[in-house]
C-alpha cells in the first residue's frame, strides 16, 4: 500500500503536465466541448428580438426628427406643414408627431414641440394625452419650466389629466430652479451685503410714493413754477 501511494499522487501531476503541454486526453476535451455547447447564450431569442425592436424604433424616431428639421430648414417657412394633416386622421397625425418628439428628446428642442402643437391646432386635430406628455417631457429635458407649464395647462384644458409621474418631473424642475435662484441670491448678498438693504429701501420708497404727491422741484438749475393766481373776490356792494 505504501508503494502504491506515490503512484496515486503522481496521476494529478501528470494531468497538470498534459494540460500545460497541450496533450490533454481526448475524454477531457470531449467533456469540455460538451459543456461549452450546453452553456446558454447571453440573451434568449425573445430578449434579443425585443432589443432589436427597440433599436429599430429609436432609429425610426431619430429619422423622423431629422427629416422634420431638414424640411423646416429647407422651406424656411414660419409654420411649415410637415405632417399631412389634411388627409391624415387624428390618430395618424398624433403618431407622426410622437415619433418626431421622441427623436428630438436628446437634442433639447422645445421649438419642435411648439411647432408641432401649432400645426396640430391649426389643422383642428385633437392632441392626444400621449402627445401632450411627450411635449411636456421635451420641455423638462430642455429645463424650460415656462413651456412645460404652458403645455400642462393646454393639456388640462383639452380634457386630459397628466399622470403623477409627469407632474413629479415638472415639480422637480420647479424645485431645482427655485433652489438655484435662492443660491444665486445668497451668493450676491454674500458678495455685497448692502445690496439686499438697498433693494429693501427701494421697495419701501416705492410703497410711500403717491399719485397725488406734489411735484418735485429741484433747488437748483430750474426755477420753480409760478404760483397759481388767487381767485378775485367780488366786492360785497356788487
Automatic annotation (TrEMBL):
Top-level taxon of the source organism: Eukaryota
Stored InterPro entries: PPR_rpt (IPR002885), TPR-like_helical_dom_sf (IPR011990)
Name assigned to this protein: CWC27 protein
Region (Disordered): 1-32, 215-238
Cross-referenced NCBIfam families: PPR
Biased composition (Polar residues): 21-31
Ranges of biased composition (kind: Basic and acidic residues): 1-20
Family matches, as Gene3D superfamilies: Tetratricopeptide repeat domain
Organism of this sequence: Symbiodinium natans
PPR repeat boundaries on the chain: 128-162
PROSITE patterns in the record: PPR
Bilayer-crossing regions: none
Amino acid at each position: 500500500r505504501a508503494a502504491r501511494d506515490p503512484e496515486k499522487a503522481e496521476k494529478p501531476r501528470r494531468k497538470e503536465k498534459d494540460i500545460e503541454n497541450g496533450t490533454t486526453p481526448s475524454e477531457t476535451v470531449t467533456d469540455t466541448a460538451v459543456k461549452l455547447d450546453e452553456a446558454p447564450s447571453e440573451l434568449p431569442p425573445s430578449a434579443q428580438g425585443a432589443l432589436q425592436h427597440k433599436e429599430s424604433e429609436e432609429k425610426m424616431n431619430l429619422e423622423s426628427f431629422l427629416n422634420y428639421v431638414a424640411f423646416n430648414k429647407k422651406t424656411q417657412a414660419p409654420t411649415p406643414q410637415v405632417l399631412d394633416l389634411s388627409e391624415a386622421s387624428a390618430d395618424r397625425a398624433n403618431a407622426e408627431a410622437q415619433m418626431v418628439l421622441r427623436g428630438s428628446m436628446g437634442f433639447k428642442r422645445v421649438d419642435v414641440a411648439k411647432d408641432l402643437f401649432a400645426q396640430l391646432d391649426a389643422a383642428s386635430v385633437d392632441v392626444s394625452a400621449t402627445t401632450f406628455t411627450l411635449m411636456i417631457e421635451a420641455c423638462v429635458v430642455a429645463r424650460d419650466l415656462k413651456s412645460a407649464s404652458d403645455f400642462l395647462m393646454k393639456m388640462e384644458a383639452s380634457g386630459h389629466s397628466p399622470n403623477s409621474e409627469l407632474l413629479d418631473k415638472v415639480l422637480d424642475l420647479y424645485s431645482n430652479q427655485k433652489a438655484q435662484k435662492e443660491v444665486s441670491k445668497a451668493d450676491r448678498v454674500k458678495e455685497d451685503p448692502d445690496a439686499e438693504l438697498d433693494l429693501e429701501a427701494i421697495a419701501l420708497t416705492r410703497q410711500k410714493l403717491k399719485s397725488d404727491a406734489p411735484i418735485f422741484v429741484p433747488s437748483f438749475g430750474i426755477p420753480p413754477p409760478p404760483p397759481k393766481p388767487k381767485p378775485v373776490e367780488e366786492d360785497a356792494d356788487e
